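Session log. Operator J.P. requested a structure for one protein chain; no other inputs attached. Running the standard single-chain path with token output.
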Amino acid sequence: YKSPSISDLRGCVNDAKAMAAFLRARLGVPADHMRVLLSETEDAPPETLPTRANILAGWEWLLSQAESGDQVFFHYSGHGSQAPTVDPPSEPDGYDETLVPYDSRETGPDGQPVYDILDKELKTYIDLVEAKGALVTVFLDCCHSGSGTRDPDVPVRKTRADERPRPLETVEPRTAARLAQPLARSASPSGWELGADGHVLLAGCRDEELSHEYRDPNTGAWHGATTFFFLQSLRNFDPALTWREVYEQVRMKVNGVYQNQTPQLEGPDNRRIFGEWAPPTAPHLLVEKVEQDAQGVYVYINGGPPLGLTEGSRVEIYPPGSGDMSGAPLARGVVDMVEVDHVWATVTAPPAQGEIPVLARVKIAAQSYDNLVYPVAVTDPLVQKVLRSPKEEGGDPEQGFSPFLQVLEEGAAGAFFQVEARDDHYAVLDAAGVQIVSETPPRTTEGARQVARILEHLAIYNNVRNLRNPSPMPLLADAVTVEAFSYTRAGRTRPTDGIPLDQRDAVLEPGRMVWLTVRNDSAEDLYASVFVLTSDFGIKRIYPRRAAYQKVEAGGAFFVNRLRPRINNPFVGRSPAIFKVFVT
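Structure written below.
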């Protein structure tokens, strides 16, 4: 940020680069259909900086280009804040919610003060673009509420309010004219006042929460937590995905790292993500550079972790213009150097003849298992020793206590879990420094081993929580229907006073139970099991109770009833009830 009064953030530029790389490489969006504004260096060309004027000019460009049926996507990564309202009747607390541009709180080239971008100004542009028939999606990875974080090493995307009095003439003119008319405030869980439900809004957190940054354990690069897990959830992009389906994955993953950060989705959640944007051919990336030395051949691929390329990923390389890339590849390689928006892969099986051409197509043959391993920050020597030693005598010392845990070097950032020594006991914390486990083992060797067992269980819990079929075209797509109801009374096969729980952020009212119905819509027999994941990190199979799985005949169904989810964790005030259905 230009103003010394606003703290810099570590992951905003990476977010924008990664999002642009995803749109270009995965969805084939042409470069001239995007504007990317970055405050990466102070000497960047002025027109490429995310200033207030450039962001509003970007919206004017979108407005001039948008036509009926177009997809318009606005992604903001940076600080959110508040400012004394320019429209007192619509803001009971006296403040407007704002985005903080690169040059806000400073003086512009014209000598006039530069102000934040009001959510009311954003609403004006959304309304104008939607009036042309375009579909608008807004992604705000920031927050505007809260007073700080317990861990000063975890950046939070919220800065203090701009208390300067703001004349109405400094507001975008069409917005200022609209504010002259009486307005009704539309409250929302995210706190952003962006108007009616025609557009989709994905916000980094709830109104009262903080939006954190998260460090990619593969690259060491910082990102906004919501952006990072959004792109991770789209590694196997399927054009049929809806915003609700993606949101549910993102919410679970963010909540797994930061217990008190809950991303919010508002608007038509059944809209297909990115609408008709879909790759015209089989998903592929491109070789943009080829280098060679005495040790081997290396290819530069135009995609990074957001597209599923992490260290150890195996890739197959096909000639330029290849169609479905289903035959024998031209060459094969393994990724060994990872950046935010690209990777280098070492060629392990070179072409039988000739060389690898630039613009050769690349397909991910196998992803690595990086996202199953959780970095742990711990300074206590007893716990460090246990985590770095084999669990059993004669075990692999390279693996340490658990293959799911990685001990960070002292001072390194990017922890998923933290261990804190408090007087005579240990406490296990999340990435933001909030205690998440009620057990507090003693500061002894056995207590350190108990901490290691807790951490391993938390890692397994998160892996089960995040587990899903990675195939973009699973063989059992549409084979199973799952229905959930809250109820108090039921007949033999369904509730008599059931209320569907398939709405976004549905709440289970006191005194009501949960009923699940799982139906086999396919033409073949399937085998199913159902697990519940509880707020105190428990994992329990609830169907069938005495076997690993149950046969469900074609066209058949089964139900699980009398489920009473409870919040058993004293450190969380809200928690999703998670039921996982496994079918083969």
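Operator note: The domain at 12-266 is CATH 3.40.50 (Rossmann fold).
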